[in-house]
Design brief:
The structure is a single chain. This protein is an all-alpha fold. The chain folds into three domains: about 70 residues, Multidrug-efflux Transporter Regulator, Chain: A, Domain 2 (Orthogonal Bundle); about 100 residues, no CATH class; about 100 residues. The protein has 17 helices and three strands. Strands 1-3-2 form a three-stranded antiparallel beta sheet. It is globular.
Length: about 350
């Protein structure tokens, strides 16, 4: 049986653009095409998609997933074993939740009458959070704390974004960009500025259908906000680049967008732990950062300098990115140390 790209995306719970991105990276190529050129995916393709998604949920970047698949470092059997182990843990938690609900029911029958819907929703959300965050982390995660004003603000924002999307407004619409910036800044605030918390919240939205039902935030909405937010950055870069440079950046800016949050989290963690910028660990992060940067900026030193100038002169580019001046300074030192270690002949593109 063959699936068209839209059918596979719907069944897999991802977006068509994600499948296109996997194809562009060489991660997942359609096995056939129709006479009209539409992509077709067979059983082997779906098996590979499972492998890709499973490795991604283990915390790997797409580049690491590709390397893992090419080296056959983790067989599908090993991946399935890991997933089964994870589900066993989740089943135990579900059993515990069921017992809590039975106890709640008996308490209610004894005469107490709280707002059951709100109570159960909070309980279910907390159970989901427990699967992704430690108790100490939950104390630092604003999202996990009861806050009616915050919840109402998010509800209103989600409704505004959904309405704009349903109207067919393009991500480059200034209204979409303003809402996307507000979204990212609220998200940065409600993850306590911790990029690692953002990565795990993204994983929750991918792995927990109940999360999407309760928040109203679908994969399509996240994709729309991401593109609108990125389009706002592109509009700023446009002022610094010539036509050829901007055409390249616009064509590739979103190709590897989902790889940025885990990398930002790793950079922030290394800085917080006091890792020296000239250490091997820091330079490995610097190489990953430069690879992603060059994926949309190209390798020309002159063009890259234009991006650095824009970053220095446009505070708007830093909004909603989880990157503080301190962390950015540490990263710049790590990149400098990397090029110093590589020698003068390898410093083009720095």
């Amino acid at each position: 049986m063959l699936f068209k790209v839209g059918e596979l995306a719907k069944r897999a719970g991802i977006t068509v653009r994600t499948l296109h991105h996997y194809e562009a990276m060489g991660l997942l190529l359609p096995s056939a095409r129709t006479a009209a050129g539409y992509r077709l995916y067979n059983r082997q393709d779906i098996t590979r998609l499972h492998h890709i998604q499973a490795l991604s949920r283990m915390g790997m970047s797409l580049s690491e997933v590709r390397d893992c698949l090419e080296r056959q470092a983790l067989s599908l059997n090993e991946v399935l074993d890991s997933q089964i182990s994870m589900l066993d843990g989740q089943l135990a938690e579900i059993a515990e939740l069921r017992q809590r609900l039975v106890t709640l029911r008996e308490t209610l029958r004894s005469g107490a009458e709280p707002d059951l819907k709100e109570w159960l929703t909070t309980l279910e959300l907390m159970t989901m959070y427990d699967r992704y965050f430690s108790k100490e982390e939950l104390k630092r995660l604003p999202f996990a704390q009861p806050d009616n004003r915050r919840d109402e603000a998010w509800k209103q924002l989600v409704e505004e974004v959904a309405a704009l999307h349903e109207q067919g407004a393009s991500p480059d619409d200034v209204r979409a960009q303003q809402l996307a910036t507000q979204w990212m800044e609220m998200l940065e605030r409600d993850t306590a500025g911790e990029a690692d918390f953002l990565v795990r919240l993204n994983t929750m939205h991918q792995a927990e259908p109940e999360m999407a039902r309760q928040t109203g935030i679908s994969p399509e909405m996240i994709d729309y906000v991401t593109r609108a937010f990125g389009q706002g950055k592109l509009d700023i870069y446009r002022r610094y680049l010539n036509d050829e440079e901007f055409a390249f950046t616009r064509a590739h800016y979103f190709d590897r967008m989902q790889e940025w949050p885990p990398l930002v989290a790793a950079v922030r963690k290394a800085n917080a732990q006091g890792v020296r910028p000239d250490s091997d660990q820091a330079q490995q992060l610097a190489r990953r950062w430069l690879e992603l940067f060059q994926s949309f900026a190209g390798t020309s030193p002159q063009t890259q300098q234009k991006f650095r100038t824009a970053m220095a002169q446009e505070p708007e580019l830093s909004r909603g990115t989880w990157m503080t001046p301190e962390v950015l300074a540490w990263l710049q030192q790590a990149i400098g140390a990397m090029f110093q270690a590589a020698g003068p002949r390898n410093q083009s593109g720095s």
